[in-house]
């Protein structure tokens, strides 16, 4: 199987980063490279990540947001396959093995995600949490060429929606996508996290993403119409 890297943006994640890293290094196919980007943490996130495993490289930056932190990690990846995960989420031990197999078996696919189950912080996953699509930072694995063409993620108002925006741009660029209908990722529900609950002040980022997507689609439709007229 192809080598892969894991990028983990982290801000004040000392409560969870060790557990997240443990789920990454315990993969049945071990990553070549794990990059943690400490996004201006004021707790022990940097120290915990730095001493966790020789596989882990830690970068630091002033607090800029999850997209900026992810971008710094992506820019330092040296493998053909990349996976990302939030610093409070977990992976099934065979997540990457399953995703790598899908990518290896179909060259037309560029992004693979999986189902994701929610669990509450402080309690082990008991299989009863809500299952959702894992089309987010903790559920995707993709070829490096996708990042090279689509470009950086962009932090949105309220720091929500950056991955949604990036995936919308990925789809518009025509990259093949597949979702594995199996729970391979676990999303932690933790009070105070960026995705903790719906809040108007933070959810405005999703409105920004939707507006940008409509503008891109209109521009593409205009290009397509012009192309047809010229044929």
TrEMBL record:
Keyword list, A-Z: Glycosyltransferase, Transferase
Superkingdom per UniProt: Bacteria
Family annotation (CDD domains): Glyco_tranf_GTA_type (cd00761)
Single annotated GO MF: glycosyltransferase activity
Residue ranges annotated for the Glycosyltransferase 2-like domain, each copy included: 5-123
Keyword Metal-binding: no
Pfam families: Glycos_transf_2
Keyword Glycosyltransferase: yes
Similarity-based family: Belongs to the glycosyltransferase 2 family.
Protein name: Glycosyltransferase family 2 protein
